[in-house]
Amino acid sequence: MLTRGELELDPLKREARRGDRDLGLTPKELAVLRVLLEADGAVVTHEELLVRAWDEHANPFSNAMRMVVMTLRRKLGEPPVIETLRGFGYRIP
What we know:
Helix content is 35%, strand content 20%. It contains three helices and six strands, in the order E-E-E-E-H-H-H-E-E. It has helices at residues 27-38, 46-53, 64-76, and strands spanning 2-4, 7-10, 15-18, 21-22, 83-85, 89-91. The strands form two sheets. Strands 1-2-3-4 form a four-stranded antiparallel sheet, with helices on one face. The longest helix is centred in the C-terminal third of the chain and has 13 residues, at 64-76. It is globular.
């Protein structure tokens, strides 16, 4: 089980919750959330997310990863959980 604050991810069941609310994440959203939670507050670069949450055929110039992060943020709700550090990457503080 990976946790940070009220956010919980069970990688074996492929389920994520924030408080008492099931998030209903897609496989890609789960993969991104897992990488961010495993970083334990450290910054995860765009490149590292592509390597760890996508396959070797991922296009590094595609907007897909940013779109997944955007929808993941929306599903996580308020207050915001994922922090963007421009020029560096993302983290869950």
